[in-house]
Amino acid sequence: MKTLIGPFAQILPMTGLSLKGALHDEQLTVIEKGGVVVENGEIIAIAGYKSLLQKYPDCEIAFQDTPLVLLPGFIDCHTHICYDGTRNRDYAMRIAGKSYLEIARAGGGIWDSVTKTRIADLVTLTENTVARANRHLKEGVTTIEVKSGYGLNLESELKMLRAIQQAGMHTPATLISTCLAAHMKPRDYTGSEEAYLQWILTELLPVIQQEQLSNRVDIFIEETAFSAKAAADFLQQAMQQGFVATVHADQFSAGGAEVAVNARALSADHLEASTEKEIALLANSDTVAVVLPGASLGLGMLYAPARRLLNAGACVAIASDWNPGSAPMGDLLVQAAVMSAAEKLSTAEVLAALTVRAAPALQLKDAGQLLAGYTADMQAYPTADYRDILYYQGKMKPALVWKKGVLV
Ligand SMILES: [Zn+2]
């Protein structure tokens, strides 16, 4: 049965936009008094409401009697929402002036989350992930990437990926998992970083593949994590095994983005420390430049150079990096809106970074735009003017969210 949803004051289908480079708001398609026809979770047609009424007279009608702006559901292409325990102690130390390294030495940092997540059972991790995914979904995020990386041994990495898989069956949101066993060399691993990465390749990834837990790998390239050289070898071998790649790159020091581009990774994420060299490399590649304003807010650091990346011609996506340490807020729209004022991003650039330009980072072929044949993942804001969405800096939340055509 077809359903006609509308009329909407405005529909922003996010179609017809280039994937790379700067965007002006004038380039946005805005359908005034629009409607959308949905059937079996898929968009059938999108156009003016009256014309759809005439073209589909037998449709069921989902009439909207208040002014709403309709957008594609957001895609959060970088999160760590599968974890247990809080890092509020770290956060208090950080805002009081302690450095990332000082906190790590005091028993905080990633290792603290590893310890707590290793203790948690599968059910707890699954429930935690479902609760966070559902909160995201209510805020218009219909597709969520979720990383492992707080297990860092066979048992716990598999437990995390199984929890993400289970969580995906208990939330309407689409969850896409990534193996981030290369988050850091675990403190209880006595071998070299190369040996640890080799262990991931030979012992962990084959099981992940066998159980179909993920087809994605990630690695944290940083002085405190893995070297560019070791990461390049790791990514090459993982890709030979059939995985696609993403990289935590250039967060505190440059070098990771170059590895990501050379490996033809789907995305290079963070980029706070990227220089003109990395910006040019990303702009001349198909690797999505994923910026994570939530981490900058949490660490009190500069934002990634999103403006310069766009000016150079890169595909820029914005993700939340929702994690217990540096980005505990997890509010994607607030983060994107706050960053847009600092980095001077147009509304078109921000909304594209949350939808159509985030889709290639997750290889999504039917999400991020409102287009016939695409999944009916949609959200509607309680306003008649799309500019209000960033004007209220993320405080205005969607009044309605649809996942696969079903109202959440
Ligand atoms: Zn991250």
Automatic annotation (TrEMBL):
Domain Amidohydrolase-related residue range list: 69-408
InterPro entries registered for this protein in UniProt: Amidohydro-rel (IPR006680), HutI (IPR005920), Metal-dep_hydrolase_composite (IPR011059), Metal_Hydrolase (IPR032466)
Keyword Transferase carried by entry: no
UniProt entry tagged with the keyword Cell inner membrane: no
One Pfam family of this chain: Amidohydro_1
GO molecular function: imidazolonepropionase activity; metal ion binding
Metabolic or biological pathway: Amino-acid degradation
Sorted UniProt keywords: Histidine metabolism, Hydrolase, Iron, Metal-binding, Zinc
GO CC field: cytoplasm
EC number: 3.5.2.7
BP term (GO), one: L-histidine catabolic process to glutamate and formamide
Gene3D superfamilies: Metal-dependent hydrolases, Urease, subunit C, domain 1
Stretches that traverse the bilayer: none
PANTHER family recorded: IMIDAZOLONEPROPIONASE (PTHR42752), IMIDAZOLONEPROPIONASE-RELATED (PTHR42752:SF1)
Protein name from the UniProt record: Imidazolonepropionase
Source organism of this protein record: Chitinophaga ginsengisegetis
